Amino acid sequence: MIKVAVLYPNSEEVKFDFGYYTNTHVPMVQDLVGDALLKVEVERGLGGRGPGEPAPFVAAASLYFESVETFQKSFGPHAEKIGADVPNYSNVQGQIQISEIV
């Protein structure tokens, strides 16, 4: 199993609409990739390493797939549409990391 982490860097200028992200964007992604997406989790950054330190990421999403190939097959054809929706909820692009669950 793999996890595709989408990490949205935090800064004083960042804007992020969690309502739109959780109620519209994530369900759209789920609909587009279908059953290939095994599970999705959304996180809101609350803090950093030390007390009062801001979170390094304003938000993170974890999308779980059986394999890299499954992710690429299901996500690839819709990547442009998914990416085009980003301005509807944020002024920052997410960083993507694909990891193997060990």
UniProtKB/TrEMBL annotation:
GO terms for molecular function: oxidoreductase activity. SUPFAM superfamilies: Dimeric alpha+beta barrel. Residues 18-90 form the EthD domain. NCBIfam families: EthD family reductase. This is EthD domain-containing protein. It comes from Kriegella aquimaris.
